[in-house]
Amino acid sequence: MNVSLTIWALTFGLISFLIILDLFTSSRKAHDVSFKEAVGWTTFYISTSMAFGLWVWNHFGSTFGTEFFAAYLVEYSLSIDNLFIFVIILAQFAVPSIFHQRILLIGVILALLFRGIFISIGAAAIAKFSFTFVIFGAILVWTGIGLFRHWDEDPEPNDNLMVRTIRSRVAMVNEFHGSKLFIKVDKKRFATPMFLVIIAIASTDLLFALDSIPATFGVTSQTFLVFTANAFALLGLRALYFLLKGLLEKLVYLSLGLSIILMFIGVKLILTYFHEVFRDVPKISTPLSLGVISGILIIATIASAIKTQSDSTAKAHAGRVTGGKGHEKENS
Description:
Keywords: Membrane, Transmembrane, Transmembrane helix
Main location: membrane
Number of strands: 2
Number of helices: 11
Strand content: under 5%
Number of domains: 1
Membrane topology: Multi-pass membrane protein
Radius of gyration: 22 Å
Pfam family, one: TerC
Subcellular location: Membrane
Order of helices and strands: HHHHHHEEHHHHH
Strand order of the largest sheet: 1-2
Largest sheet: 2 strands, antiparallel
């Protein structure tokens, strides 16, 4: 895939424009994001991503177009899992809802920087050592197994090493002071809880980059596609948070599905390396990967809906039984 400097420059320009657009429109003033606004921005970012994918398909061919859409789907699905962590962080630090939008935008910008660094390192490693595919694959399989074992457990933001270090070494106040990260009290500088939240979000983004970058390289080895798939998925992350905030707790099997996806992509990466060394070893194609990933996400979503409906029915039935017994006691 031959990507000219002009195309790279235009792509960076487009991404920068989208960030600036967000800063001067939706994120310009702190406010509670309505469901209608979240739908509008989510539709905008998904449409922009699809349009970019179609341009890749038309300009570079169907193979690279398919790889972009597969990489975007992987990143977007992993981004949804990230939202679970963001919800927990914002809830446990009791961040006022009007500041959620600004914090998430800062998180997205930091994530883009982290992903850019990791993508550059990953691309250089793959170019020099093809065995990097096996290393990336092993990381994903190990991560997938860990997520599979603990898929129904919520993380504890205060267990974050960086958060614990900041708490122990930096003077802090307990109250939020608008969106300020630091304030002065009696001429002494104190960090606010907002600073700690940003640290928690940034360090979480850093950890997610360690998983998501190898996962994206698992469906395409093209640096341009890895970067753009990550960028477009992250740009739509903030709007997706407000759209799904009330539904996230209902996607009970999403983490389980993502653990299987990570293990599948890990195996695909390992097979890719051995296919190059031993031609008899089969290679998983990109269209097949796209189908498997889509299928797992659909099954996880449907199973979550069934589970949620079943739990709601069981609770409603238990409530009726309890209520009935209460009436019997009153009548007696």
